[in-house]
Design a protein that fits this description.
With 345 residues, the chain is an alpha/beta fold. Helices cover 42% and strands 14% of the residues.
């Protein structure tokens, strides 16, 4: 089925496979920022966003990492410490996410310094009317396919606010873009299953609930895999993280239910702490026969950023092929849109 290009094009009618292969270009995007570029001292940063719009912020806790405290907020209200020394970055691809709009209003009440990332909507209107630093995300089929745009905008905002230096990421972004351009071609639709690792993994996990595990450094990639399983393939998936896994969830695999209709995916990296790497090995050995054998995906690349974005891109292809196998169009998220309408009543 996955070598039938006619069927693939029918189900992937918005060519998300083609978009996934070109995501590397987003890392090189140059934003034309509007609004206030003058910031006072910033002692902490809070990023408010939901779903795919929050994903880019998870990178900052892993790469490039800030000296200032940095927190991702996924709710209606901001943390209690937010004040005039806080940079609050609000992000929503649609610009209409109600939690993010509420967080913006909370930031204004607290007198925080504010920047906005959006593709339009109410956030853009507010940012332009009040002169907040504003980055407009280029059009994408869904927020989950604007993550690399969002990451680039976030990094640039941190530079403007004086908490990050271009020298800390510019060259690495360019190198990573080149790396992704070279590697993503191996998963194109016209590469047959026998030579296509993404198609092979999709076939291995079809019909099973998915659990994705990673260490702390690869956690943003694992979170993107979960999002992509849910939204691309319309397929239930969860994620967990080592070493926390070994303090609770590890035991859960040992007994019930005895019939475990799951697919386990381990996202591993040689850049994780050496003890985390050993935990993967010991966990797999002790749980052998008690849970499904994990599908190990070894991150490729020489740097942390290359490995993170390589895993994300590979996961996009895997979940898009799973959508084809599931007989669904990977682009729309109709139930989310229906939920928003019901919530508004």
């Amino acid at each position: 089925m996955l070598d039938d290009l006619t069927l693939i094009h029918q189900r992937d009618s918005e060519d998300l496979l083609g978009i996934a292969a070109k995501q590397w270009q987003q890392l090189l995007h140059k934003f034309d920022f509007e609004g206030n570029k003058q910031f006072g001292n910033v002692y902490n940063v809070v990023y408010a966003g939901m779903g795919g719009s929050a994903l880019a912020a998870l990178f900052v806790n892993v790469w490039p990492r800030l000296k200032e405290p940095f927190e991702v907020s996924r709710e209606y209200e901001l943390p209690p410490y937010v004040d005039g020394d806080t940079l609050v970055i609000v992000s929503s691809y649609s610009g209409n996410t109600e939690e993010t709009l509420s967080a913006l209003a909370d930031a204004e009440t607290r007198g925080a310094q504010i920047a906005v990332i959006a593709g339009g909507g109410k956030l853009e209107e507010i940012a332009l009317a009040k002169g907040y630093l504003f980055a407009k995300i280029p059009k994408a089929p869904q927020p989950r396919y604007a993550v690399f745009y969002n990451l680039r905008a976030l990094l640039d905002i941190l530079v403007i606010a004086g908490v990050l230096n271009h020298d800390q990421f510019d060259v690495e972004l360019e190198q990573t873009a080149d790396f992704l351009q070279q590697t993503a071609g191996a998963w194109r639709a016209d590469i047959p299953t026998a030579q296509n690792a993404a198609k092979q993994l999709a076939q291995e996990i079809v019909g099973k609930s998915v659990v994705v595990y990673s260490g702390p450094r690869m956690h943003p990639a694992a979170y993107k895999w979960k999002i992509s399983f849910n939204e691309n393939a319309k397929h239930v998936a969860w994620l967990g993280e080592l070493p926390e896994f070994n303090h609770n969830e590890f035991i859960g695999w040992s007994k019930q239910p005895t019939d475990k209709p799951y697919a386990v995916i381990d996202l591993r990296s040689n850049l994780e702490h050496e003890r985390v790497q050993k935990r993967f090995e010991v966990s797999a050995r002790l749980l052998s026969g008690l849970r499904p054998e994990p599908h190990v995906v070894q991150a490729q690349g020489d740097t942390l950023l290359e490995q993170l974005l390589w895993l994300i891109t590979f996961g996009d292809f895997v979940t898009l092929y799973l959508a084809i196998l599931n007989g669904v169009n990977p682009a729309p998220v109709d139930l989310v849109e229906k939920f928003k309408k019901e919530l508004a009543l």
